[in-house]
Amino acid sequence: TRGELEKAEEMYRKALEIEEKLGRLEGMASAYGGLGLIYKTQGELEKAEEMHRKSLAIDEKLGRVEGMANAYGNLGLIHETRGELEKAEEMLRKSLAINEKLGRVEGMAITYGNLGVIYQTRGELEKAEEMQRKGLAINEKLGRLEGMAINYANLGIVRKQRGDLAGARECWGKSQELYAKMGLGQKVKEVEGLLEELEEGK
User: pLDDT digits over 98-113, tens only?
Assistant: First the structure.
């Protein structure tokens, strides 16, 4: 979380070594998932995919559906980063189906938001808005401020693409407010940049 990725990797590697020694498959799956997130953050997508696939294989073996949902979600984001939108959607849909079955509403909200980004990239703006709205409704219910801030930021992008500049301004304003509430200064600046571009007519 601090961005000290080398130290984080070292810790996950140590954990993995102990889990392997003990033959604790569940712990191994978690460690692989953690390593996958680090590699994705570093832009090492092949390594990240390999880790999430290892995690998924163990979760499938154990029938750990919650772990499978997380792995599918993470694989979806890797495919999205690569621009492989069909594969990304397939993985996210698998994640969503499991989360719905388990009633994991937080997982559903995150997946709706990620699907919204895929549709927005494709230019399917109605679908994109629908997904962000579904995610937002859940996040509001749960009081997940960060989730709400992300949904509003993405809704702003969709509104801008539709030519609804007032709507974009409103959504980004709400996003900024929520990030400020959480003390996430960097995110506040990012949304500020979007608002400035809007005023400059970019």
Answer: 999 999 999 999 999 9
